[in-house]
Amino acid sequence: MSSGETTKARLLEAAGEEFAAKGYEKASIRKICDRVNANCAAVNYHFGSKEQLYVEAVLEAHRCGTEMLPESAFQEGTPAQQLRRYIHHFLGHVLAISHENTWHQALMLREMIQPTPASEVLVREAIRPRFERLVGILRGVCPEAEPRKLSALAFSVVGQCLHYRVARSISERLVGAELYETLDLDFLTDHITSFCLAALGLAPPLNLAGEAVVNDPVSIR
Amino acid sequence: MSSGETTKARLLEAAGEEFAAKGYEKASIRKICDRVNANCAAVNYHFGSKEQLYVEAVLEAHRCGTEMLPESAFQEGTPAQQLRRYIHHFLGHVLAISHENTWHQALMLREMIQPTPASEVLVREAIRPRFERLVGILRGVCPEAEPRKLSALAFSVVGQCLHYRVARSISERLVGAELYETLDLDFLTDHITSFCLAALGLAPPLNLAGEAVVNDPVSIR
Amino acid sequence: MSSGETTKARLLEAAGEEFAAKGYEKASIRKICDRVNANCAAVNYHFGSKEQLYVEAVLEAHRCGTEMLPESAFQEGTPAQQLRRYIHHFLGHVLAISHENTWHQALMLREMIQPTPASEVLVREAIRPRFERLVGILRGVCPEAEPRKLSALAFSVVGQCLHYRVARSISERLVGAELYETLDLDFLTDHITSFCLAALGLAPPLNLAGEAVVNDPVSIR
Amino acid sequence: MSSGETTKARLLEAAGEEFAAKGYEKASIRKICDRVNANCAAVNYHFGSKEQLYVEAVLEAHRCGTEMLPESAFQEGTPAQQLRRYIHHFLGHVLAISHENTWHQALMLREMIQPTPASEVLVREAIRPRFERLVGILRGVCPEAEPRKLSALAFSVVGQCLHYRVARSISERLVGAELYETLDLDFLTDHITSFCLAALGLAPPLNLAGEAVVNDPVSIR
DNA sequence: AATGAATGAGCCTTCATTCAT
DNA sequence: GATGAATGAAGGCTCATTCAT
Prior knowledge:
4 copies of one chain form a homotetramer. By secondary structure, the first copy, chain A, is an all-alpha fold. Chain A has 2 domains: 3-62, Homeodomain-like (Arc Repressor Mutant, subunit A), CATH 1.10.10.60; 64-220, Tetracycline Repressor, domain 2, CATH 1.10.357. Chain A is built from 11 helices and no strands. Chain A has helices spanning 7-26, 29-35, 42-47, 50-67, 79-95, 103-113, 119-141, 147-166, 168-175, 177-181, 185-199. The interface between A and B is large, with 77 and 78 residues. Chain B binds a DNA duplex (21 and 21 nucleotides) through residues 1, 6-8, 28-30, 38-46, 49-50.
């Protein structure tokens, strides 16, 4: 009615925005329907239930989020370059403030942090492939690392990135809004990449000034 | 009545568990009251409203969480040792699976991820002091680092630790429950500490096997 | 469903009766819904809130009260005849004991005495037109009277009539139920009309027996 | 505590103000107790129930209202002078805007309009004596009038006065706040007194300008 | 003499859902 | 294909009241 899209498509879009902004509990199907001038029974008619609507929204988020993925761009160059590209790409999503038209990443991240039954599909189709790609890059750097070590390494990379979404508002209050604003995509890509590469021995340590005191890792306990 | 504690205290305990387990929205004051055999008006009598009960629960969580803090134990030893102690301590909270009696950490972390008005007090009284301590440790390692860099370093440490709470269930499905179980407190303390110390030049890089190819950090873009 | 009317219409009817009988505060939407075998959420569905239901009931009262208005019947005959007709008509409403089917006047009078936000519409659409008509009649009698005097005259007429609603039960107890019953529509119409006409010089004073001692109005203070 | 008065006396005072301002339903005993720093159980302790507190407040209102009554001042002078004094005195109460310390009249008038069980005592001890006094004055003017006629006359006097309390806010909106303000105690005393005296043949009709066309009261029907 | 604690009934409202059309 | 009407459950909250101290 208000656009050329079908009611179902417009419902899905509105639902995505609401769920991304408020979370599953606080989002109300009535408001979602109101936003697209649909009857409050429309959700149950088209999707069966609120829960199924949510699942569809999460899958739609994944679908849209994947389309723009530069498929094999991560396999070119040195591992270090690949890692930088990966971090840059991931951080781009993490730092994107969710506009009305960019709820996709917000919803997927929400699902990572607070998984619902919808996450099973999400893990299988969206998260796992990307995680495997990161593990692949890291395996290129540490060919002999056991799976457990590789996983921990990958989590270290992901955790650093994700933190800027997870604890955004707390962090902002912690360091002040002024400083926090300077932590933009470029700066953080540089920082996290350098941090990881240094840890992996692919770049000099961040503490350039200090005399590199290489302690025995065991003795410091 | 049914126990030695006062009704108010029992309400606070039950509320903490409910809020930690279900979040603010899904938790119901009726169920909280039922759990301690109190009337559903008891919350409003003792705390004024659901929201104030939540704030009280968060503060209580902080209070109990702080009691076991080894005040100045972080200032002894080398910076590397201090950092390891910090990570060990932090991870201890993060990995603690919330039993009925350990809702405190779960609630605080929930508040970090989805801050409510209650977070202001939490930041001021619990999070900021701990964050400043970490920054202090890092400043000991990198005396000349600008505040922005110090913040980013601190976030890198915290982000790696917090990830095991934030994305716990997703991660578990990602690497398999079997492997995930081996990522226990000791292993992760070792891993994250080594990772950070290496990045800071206080320990050898994790990639012991590989020939330490130190690239120019700029050329890898 | 249980009758030919729609649920919304039946709700409005029941609400009118309840509000008229108990007032806004004491009336409960649950009881209103029960009376028409509707779910307690029906009011919110059809009217949005208790307050809006009340406003609708007041407007409905006005609507039904106006339908039976003999439009321009007040403009025929002498001013004295017009005034008598006005008083007769007004008293007719005032004295009507509110059965279940005559809650309309009761509700409007309640709103006059204890105005709520709903009264704004009521004044504009129901009370003011009638008041202006009375002022018009009085202006026909006293063409040179200033607006203030005209208003006071109108209030004198209205006040005498309204008193039999406002202070009904107190008055009844004051003079005894037996005597009070004889104060019916005809008697009171005669009385108030004569009283006003005499005061305005359009009829002989009520005190027919007494020798008309016309004092200087100032000297009696 | 806050003053030398007993808690019970302070409760009664606060209750009077609340009841006068909000009515029985909307007034809450909790707020009444809060205002005098008493426990919310104090009302039930001192008065037994909310209803009994209300009755006590009404009686207290009557008590305080009567003290300042110029007992026999109404029996001096001519009936016209007596009537003027009566109207002046009554209007004085009616027009008094209820301050915190003048809730007595407001509460009594409220009880006149919406009687509760408390009104029985009020009628017997406060309203009836005053009403009888007015009837006495009117009997002095119309010695031969039957009781019914005397009652109607008295109601005409009272009704005109009371209207400025009953329909105050509606009237104000009807004629405009500016004009309504000029309807002060002096003007209204003059107006109503003149109106009544003229109707009773004790003063010239208000319509001085018009030629006194005395119609046959029957022919105007 | 007075109170803090606790209660149970009731309030209005919101919710996701169902059903007949 | 889609909707307006209606529902039952549950929500948080306020109330006057009670009871043991």
